[in-house]
Amino acid sequence: MRRPEFRRTDDAEASTGRLAGLRRRLARIFALRPFLLAVVLSLVGLVAGGSVPLIGSVGRFLGIALAGFVLAFVVSDHRYVEAGLAGALTAGIGFVVSAFDTALLPVVADYGLQVAGVGTTAGLIAALLGHYFGRDLRAGLTREL
C-alpha cells in the first residue's frame, strides 16, 4: 500500500480566494527583503554622503542615489517601489533629524511636516534616479553586441 504524498505549498498557492489573488499581485509589486536591503543601503548612503564635509546635505541625497544605483546594478533590476520607498523614508527621517540637530528647531516646530515632505520628495527622486541609472548600466553591460 502506497502512502499519500504530502507536499508543502505556499499559502498563496493553497488558497484560491480573493485574498490569495491579492497576495500574489502584491508580491509582484512589493517584496519585503529587497525593501529591507534598500533601507539598509539608503541609511548607509545617507550617513556616508552626509559625512563628506564640503558637500553637506547634498551628499546625503547623492548617497541615497548611490544606494538605489547599487540595488539596481547588483541585486535586482525591477524594484522601483522598494528603492523609492526606502529612499523617501530614510531621507525624510534624516532631514527631520538633521533639522533637530541644528539651530532650525523653531522652524521644525512650526513647519515639521513641510520639512519632512521636502526631504521625503528629494529622497524619493534621488533613489528612483539612482535605481534607473543602475538598471540602465546593468542592461547596457549585459546586452550582447
Question: What structural keywords apply?
Answer:
6 helices, mainly alpha, globular
Distance between the termini: 59 Å
Per DSSP, what share of the residues sits in E-state strands of 2 or more residues? under 5%
Q: How much helical structure, as a percent, in the residues?
A: over 70%
The SS-based structural class is: mainly alpha
What is the averaged pLDDT score?
81
Radius of gyration: 20 Å
The number of helical elements comes to 6
Total count of domains: 1
Stretches where pLDDT is under 50 for at least 5 consecutive residues are none
The coarse silhouette is globular
Tally of extended strands? 0
The H-and-E topology, N to C, reads as HHHHHH
Biggest sheet layout:
none
Keywords: Membrane, Transmembrane, Transmembrane helix
Transmembrane segments: 30-52, 58-76, 83-105, 111-133
How would you describe this structure to a colleague?
Keywords: Membrane, Transmembrane, Transmembrane helix. This protein has 145 residues and is an all-alpha fold. It has one domain. The protein is 79% helix and 0% strand. It has 6 helices and no strands. α3 packs antiparallel against α4, α4 runs antiparallel to α5 and α4 runs parallel beside α6. The protein is globular and about 75 Å long.
